[in-house]
Amino acid sequence: MGTKGRKTRRTAVALAFTAGTVAALTNTAQADEVEPQPPLPPDEGARVRQAAAAAERGQRVVRSRTIDAEADTSLGLAGGGESVGTVGTTESIAADGDSAHRATVIDELPHDGTRMSAVLDERPENDEITFDLELDDDILPWVAPSGQVILYRDGDVAGVVEAPWAVDSAGRDIATSLELRDGQLVQHLELDDPAIQYPVIADPTYWNICNCVTHGGFGSASSYVHGSIRPDKDFTQSRGYYPVWGENEGVTRVVRRSGECSWYPDTGPYWDFQIPCKMHDYCWDLIRASRDTPNYGKVSEGACDNEFLAAMDQHCAQRGFWTRSLCHAEADLVHAAVLPFSP
Length: 343
Prior knowledge:
It is a single chain. By secondary structure, the protein is of the alpha+beta class. 22% of the residues lie in helices and 31% in strands. The strands form 6 sheets. Strands 2, 4, 7, 8, 13 and 16 form a 6-stranded antiparallel sheet that branches. The chain has a 5-stranded antiparallel sheet with strand order 1-9-6-5-3, with no helix packed on it. Strands 10-11-12-17 form a 4-stranded antiparallel sheet, with no helix packed on it. Helix 3 packs across helix 4 (274-289), helix 4 runs antiparallel to helix 5 and helix 5 (301-316) packs antiparallel against helix 6 (321-338).
């Protein structure tokens, strides 16, 4: 992974982490170091995936496994084809001194990603839970206005920790945020509401930045939204976030995670345009960024709108025979509706 001789430093990342490109996944706990634990409920993985689907609007899971919270597990993080560091599990303690952390569910995601989700049975002390994080010395983290934590190497973006999410067992959203504090990355949870039902599941998402050509001033809309070229750091400075991969209902694009079909339902009885809408928002943001920087000038409004229709049609083509034509008609309607508008 090109990391020989690279030094690391320790900090802490709170609650849950999704690592891009797993360089190493090792259970380093010795059998005599951890007391035997009762079997974990078999539905934890399903519970986490259901919560993640609601919070992240869907990410296909390639493979999943559940580990005990006391097991010492380390995941390698990478960005742009190089190591970024490692993240490891840490047991969470409740105010009464007992463990608040039931289990950690590790989901392998497309594009060499891994989601590492904490399942909490009780309220953690200080409403914070930490995972150990060791970053290479040349990685500089920064909290963007979007709530993302962006990891820079030599002035270029190497990885992105998504703005976090948390839900209780009733599916209610729990307010949460990330903070860089004294060399630590801390996720805060607002758990004062007595109506919160445990277990609570939470997970910011780490995305490996592709090992592709960085911005060179010549990228088309298609090359950006399909991930063959990526924006430079000036995009983050202009728009306040960095794009990530999105995959749902058979459509994979680079997206603005917080994007949406602002004036039209994202989903309906025979369509799911969540990823196309998030992609379209990102594409328009490239045009907006071009007003603040000389870059991205080859991304045009018409090309973005065409990519939007193509992504919707790709989804519709996978629908069943009876709903396919209805979905395509809906896509044409949505596409025609955005044409009078400009970014």
